[in-house]
## 1
Amino acid sequence: MRVLLVGGGGREHALALGLAGDPAVEALVAAPGNPGIAAVAELREVTPTDPAAVAALAVEVAADLVVIGPEAPLVAGVADAVRAKGIAVFGPSAEAARLEGSKTFAKDVMTAAGVPTARAYTCEDAAAVAHALDEFGAPYVVKDDGLAAGKGVVVTDDRAAAERHAAECGRVVIEEYLSGPEVSLFVVTDGEAAVPLLPAQDFKRVGDGDTGPNTGGMGAYTPLPWTPPNLVDDVMRDVVHPTLAELRRRGTPFAGLLYVGLAITPSGPRVIEFNARFGDPETQVVLALLETPLGGLLHAAATGTLGAHSPLRWRDGAAVTVVVAAEGYPAGPRTGDVITGADRAGIIHAGTRRDADGTLRSAGGRVLCGTATGPDLAAARDAAYALVRDVELAGSHHRTDIAAAAVDGRITIPG
Ligand code: AMP
């Protein structure tokens, strides 16, 4: 199988490692890729959000499967353009990707499907915003209605800050605050059959102890020793299958990766958000434990044959990833700094570039991450931090508490 992977961040580096490790994948092309991905794939230039350009590249490289990593190409219709060329693609249509691209659309689908989630209002003016904030009270949850790369959400006790964010965004979804630890559940689906991967937890805030602003994600671990038994079965039954059925009913089946972001509240799991693609950095840890060949799994989802796929196999133990971010991230990351100590197994490249002379430099807010496995969470955590310690990047920062509460047994479900 010849595979074209679209994207160039940490998630795509993890996907590239998984695809390259599948004996059925005879050629892997990544566009645009990154210096980490270059070690396992041929890199090609492309604008990932240009449907015609990606489809043409898929034809040119004779791809049997196109895997689309990020959300923006999906929302732009890249999967549709590739499918129109008769090439199998892992990633939903633009219509189905609205599950991520529009918070209002997602709420609408959840309501129609009876999926447990926070009560919410879509607001377009200050009066509606004030009314919704009054109704739900603090902490206030205000979400930009469009794609915001995980950074369009403000959760705050500060009423003025909530109003300011709403005014800056224009159209927002304001919702009830959900209390409880969060879980990311990835589900591979062909629109009908659905296969859950291991639940993971990520760390959205920039600082230790969940302080500071939201980011794209500062680290992750899997598995989760503290989740209620049956969590995955319950979410498949109450969330995933009803959502997939509702999208089929609308004539826009969702095939690809359905990312279910959940809060485990005292009344049970509630959906915080859907995404239409693998999450970053949870993908790094989930794929580190996946033993089943990745290419075959994604190809089955892309060709409507997932129901016939054999059950997934997982490695024992745990995986942890720690993100190294550039100085100034998330507000205003500085780029162009020299990175040393990054050319080793377990270092996933997220925002890097390489000069002609081989020098590696930072090229984004989240620069790279150290991903490690171990016989248990504590060992995986130590190994991931050992990787990060050996990386040098001026001004960089990382959280020191990734997976710490889980290792110490400090995560509880309020009740
Ligand atoms: P989202 O982009 O919707 O995932 O939101 C980003 C982060 O904001 C989530 O991971 C949560 O930590 C937080 N968040 C979003 N919605 C809620 C909610 N209704 N209640 C509590 N926290 C939320």
## 2
Amino acid sequence: MAETFDLIVIGSGPGGYVCAIRAAQLGMKVACVEKRATLGGTCLNIGCIPSKALLQSSEVFHQTAHGLKDHGIAVGEVNFDLARMQARKGEVVSANTKGIEFLFKKNKITWIKGAARFIGPNAIEVGGSAYSAKSIVIATGSESVPLKGVEVDEKRIVTSTGALELDKVPGRLVVIGGGVIGLELGSVWARLGAKVTVVEFLERITPFLDGEICKAFQQSLTKQGFTFKLGHKVTGATTGKDGVTLTIEPAKGGAAETLEADIVLLAIGRRAYTEGLNLAAAGVATDARGLVLTDAHYATNVPGIYAIGDVIAGPMLAHKAEEEGVALAELLAGQAGHVNYDAIPGVVYTWPEVASVGRTEEELKAAGVAYKVGKFPFMANGRARAMGEMEGFAKVLSDKTTDRLLGAHIIGPDAGTLIAELVTAIEFGASAEDVARVCHAHPTLSEVVKEAALAADGRALHI
Ligand code: FAD
Ligand code: NAI
């Protein structure tokens, strides 16, 4: 006899584990299947958390080595111990994954250890045992997109997983793909001494960002020592004893050239992961790219089977997966779960950070929406000056007629934290004037947001 639950969640990433916890809070008998040895999915084990641990360590090193003189602080020669840095990263990951295990126990969620495969519309098998549930949620996440001719071995040619595990700083790191992973992990290794070259297919990096922000971002990274080969594609990679030779060509056609690298990081996007799930046994439909198809309430084409997170459409972000997990658990409990996809922030955790929410200027133009722009630079902010972090600016976009906030974009110190105010404003349907009228503590970086909102009405005060 199959053990029965109200809800089985397949995958314990931020989508799956949050869905499981919320469903348990709402009184359901819940199990979560995870095949990895630890809970937390890509995010906690090989994604958000380990990358932020290394970004933090490399930032502290870089600041100590290069940023203290200006403050009148003298230090001797600054060194780092990569093995200790990596061990610390491991400790951070472990504390987080154990935290999810604790939360599962606290909420009486059963962790079924192993890989799940469907054996029918409401039944799965894990390690030879069958389990059934009224509702099953697919939250199996995503994996790195491969590239023909570039064979990943996770040693010389790595995905983000291997790039987080390097035991030596590469002399030359070539990143394929100028997106979030390439620029974050490129920053880690650049700060520790690698010469980083980014090969990007398009004529710009981070194509999803507002154009003006993107330009400033590329300039900043170039100042930090990054080299960009825009409008180029990689056509082949040969691994030798001492490194990798990449062949690249202009995307529009033209003469090929070669690039030598000690390590190549392949980061051209991620794709839905459903391998081994045996979706066919349940009859769950996917699209041509392998994304599980759902309606607005996360229901697949099979009654009782739902999907959330990276495995469905939308931005592949941990907080998006979490919001969907909560909304779905609430919908299953008969409540009105809902996710506002217009108010999902995106943050690139480089330095300066880049954060955005809502529409870019290019999107508004393409949609024919009349808008106002308000901008304010960190250069004119007292706190940023005191910190010695004057790079970047905040930009708000509001409707020309109603002044309703449509998008906000920040490049600068702590942009990822500053954007939260504008996400809240958009969630509440606020206008730029609403933000401008809020009292912001002085001296804080958040005054840049207020001034950008004032600037949308042509009345910034400190510029
Ligand atoms: P996942 O976290 O991928 O979890 C899916 C889980 O399902 C996995 O643990 C997998 O083992 C398990 N699984 C799969 N198939 C089965 C099966 N058949 N049976 C049992 N278990 C199964 N996002 C951010 O918002 N901020 C960041 O800073 C950020 N940094 C990132 C850095 C890197 C290097 C990477 C790779 C990603 C980063 N992301 C970040 C993206 C984020 O990790 C994902 O959006 C998020 O993890 C998606 O959550 P999920 O629950 O959908 O799936
Ligand atoms: P991405 O989608 O951010 O960037 C991929 C880049 O590669 C794009 O600029 C694209 O134009 C380029 N590209 C595609 N094919 C190419 C080719 N053949 N040659 C050269 N360039 C090519 O994908 P990335 O960086 O791999 O990240 C995957 C996902 O992980 C993202 O969707 C992101 O949301 C998530 N993530 C989020 C983070 C965050 O929120 N801070 C951090 C890291 C990852």
